[in-house]
Design brief:
15 helices, 62% helix, globular
C-alpha cells in the first residue's frame, strides 16, 4: 500500500462526491423556482439510497469475479464482505485499500442515476424516482460497470473507458431517453416559456462540477502518478475548448454568447474527455473538447425535431458527449501516454480500437435504453411514474415535499428578460 496513492484517492473520492451537490445546483438553477427543491432533493436522495445499495449488493455485482469476461459479477462482496483496509488481490498492482476503491466507485454509482434527473425535471414523482434508481443500479449500472470497468465482455473485447464515458455518460443519457419516452413531456412544453429561474445557481454548480471532475478523471488512475497528471491537464483543456466552441457557435447562430451556453459547453467538454482522459495527450483534448461543444449544442435541437422533452438536455450533452468521447478515443488513443492503451487510428494503430469503441458504445446505449424504458413502464403501470397535472402545476416543491424554496416578493419585470436554453428570449410571466 502506498500512502501517496491512498491520500490522492481519499481526496478524489471526496471530489467526486462533491459533484452530486454540484449537479443539483447545476440542474436546480435551470428549472422554474417551484421545482428547485424537487430537483435538489432527487440528487441528494441518490447520495443516500445508492450508497447503501452499493455497499449491500452493487459493488459485488459490479466488481465481484473481476476479470471474468462475462456480464455480471458475483456475490463475494455482498454487504462489503471481505472488503477491508488492505489492497487485496482484486486488482493487480492496486496500492490503496480495497475499501477505498469501493468507496471511490460508490461515488460514480451515485452520480450516474442522478444525471437522469435533468431529463425528467418538473414532472417525475419522487417515490417513483427512488424505486427507479434503486432498481436501475442493480439491473443496469452494475452490469455495465462490470462489462467495462471490471474486465467484463466489453473490456475483453478491447474497448477502453478511462473514467466512465460509457459506464456513466452513455449509460445515464440512454436511460434518460428511455424514461422520458415513457414519462411524456412537461405540461405546457412547446407552448409555454420555461426559462431557468437562477442562472447564478447553474454557474455555481458548473464550477463545482468542473472542480470535482479532476477527481472523477484523474482519480481513475487509482494512483498519484503521471497518468493522473495527464488526466488533469486533459480535463481542463477539454472543458475550456468546449466552452469556447459552444459560445462561438451560439454567438454565430443566435447572436449572443450566454452564461447558460458557457456552462453547458464546459460540461459537454468534461463529458467527452471522460473516457479519454488517461489515454490521450498533446492537443487531442482541445480537439475533443472543441468538437463536443459544437456537436452537443447542435444535438440539443434534436428534441424539438423528434418530439421528446429532455428538460435540461441530458440526452444532448451526456449521451451525445459520451458517444463522441468514447468513439474518438479510437482515433486519438496514445500508448505513449498510457501503456494500457493501444494506439488509435490517427497514431498509426489502425481501426481496431475504433471498431471496439463503436461496438461498446452501441451495446451500452441499446441495453440501457431498453431496460430503462421497460423499468419505467413497469413503475408507471404499478406505482405511477409522474405527478398529477395539478401537482405539476403547483410545483414539485410543494406537491412532493411540502416546502417552498423562496419566500420573496414578486420582482416582476425588474428581473429583465430571461433566456431559454436555446438562446431564445422568453417573456416574463
Amino acid at each position: 500500500m502506498d500512502s501517496g496513492d491512498t491520500a490522492w484517492m481519499l481526496m478524489s473520492t471526496a471530489l467526486v462526491l462533491f459533484m452530486t451537490p454540484g449537479l443539483a445546483l447545476f440542474y436546480g438553477g435551470m428549472v422554474r423556482s417551484k421545482h428547485v427543491l424537487g430537483m435538489l432533493m432527487q440528487n441528494f436522495a441518490a447520495m443516500g439510497l445508492i450508497a447503501v445499495l452499493w455497499a449491500l449488493v452493487g459493488f459485488s455485482l459490479a466488481f465481484g469475479d473481476l476479470g471474468n469476461a462475462g456480464i455480471l459479477g458475483n456475490l463475494d462482496f455482498l454487504g462489503l464482505s471481505g472488503v477491508g483496509t488492505d489492497p487485496g488481490s482484486l486488482i493487480e498492482g492496486l496500492t490503496i485499500p480495497l475499501v477505498l476503491f469501493a468507496a471511490y466507485q460508490m461515488t460514480f454509482a451515485v452520480i450516474t442515476p442522478a444525471l437522469i434527473t435533468g431529463a425528467t425535471a418538473d414532472r417525475l414523482k419522487f417515490s417513483a424516482y427512488l424505486v427507479f434508481i434503486g432498481a436501475w443500479l442493480v439491473l443496469v449500472y452494475a452490469p455495465v460497470a462490470h462489462w467495462v470497468f471490471a474486465g467484463g465482455w466489453l473490456a475483453d473485447l478491447g474497448a477502453l473507458d478511462f473514467a466512465g464515458g460509457a459506464v456513466v455518460h452513455i449509460n445515464a443519457g440512454a436511460a434518460a431517453l428511455g424514461v422520458i419516452l415513457v414519462l411524456g413531456p412537461r405540461r405546457g412544453w412547446r407552448s409555454e416559456a420555461m426559462p431557468p429561474h437562477s442562472l447564478p445557481l447553474t454557474m455555481l454548480g458548473t464550477g463545482i462540477l468542473w472542480f470535482g471532475w479532476f477527481g472523477f478523471n484523474a482519480g481513475s488512475a487509482l494512483a498519484a502518478n503521471g497518468v493522473a497528471a495527464q488526466a488533469v491537464m486533459n480535463t481542463f483543456l477539454a472543458a475550456s475548448a468546449a466552452m469556447l466552441s459552444w459560445m462561438l457557435v451560439e454567438r454565430l447562430k443566435d447572436g449572443h454568447a450566454t452564461t447558460l451556453g458557457a456552462a453547458s459547453g464546459a460540461v459537454a467538454g468534461l463529458v467527452a474527455i471522460t473516457p479519454c482522459a488517461g489515454f490521450v495527450g498533446g492537443v487531442s483534448p482541445i480537439l475533443i473538447g472543441a468538437a463536443a461543444g459544437v456537436f452537443c449544442l447542435l444535438a440539443i435541437g434534436l428534441k424539438n425535431r423528434f418530439g421528446y422533452d429532455d428538460s435540461l438536455d441530458v440526452v444532448g450533452i451526456h449521451l451525445v458527449g459520451g458517444l463522441l468521447g468514447s468513439i474518438v478515443l479510437g482515433l486519438f488513443a496514445d500508448s505513449a501516454i498510457n501503456e494500457l492503451a493501444v494506439d488509435g487510428l490517427f497514431l498509426g494503430g489502425g481501426a481496431g480500437l475504433l471498431v471496439d469503441q463503436i461496438v461498446a458504445s452501441a451495446a451500452v446505449l441499446v441495453y440501457s435504453l431498453v431496460v430503462s424504458a421497460a423499468l419505467a413502464k413497469v413503475i408507471d403501470v404499478t406505482l405511477g411514474l409522474r405527478v398529477s397535472p395539478d401537482e405539476e402545476l403547483e410545483g414539485l416543491d410543494r406537491s412532493q415535499h411540502a416546502e417552498t424554496a423562496y419566500f420573496l416578493s414578486d420582482l416582476g419585470s425588474s428581473l429583465g428578460t430571461p433566456v431559454t436554453h436555446q438562446g431564445e428570449r422568453a417573456p416574463v410571466s
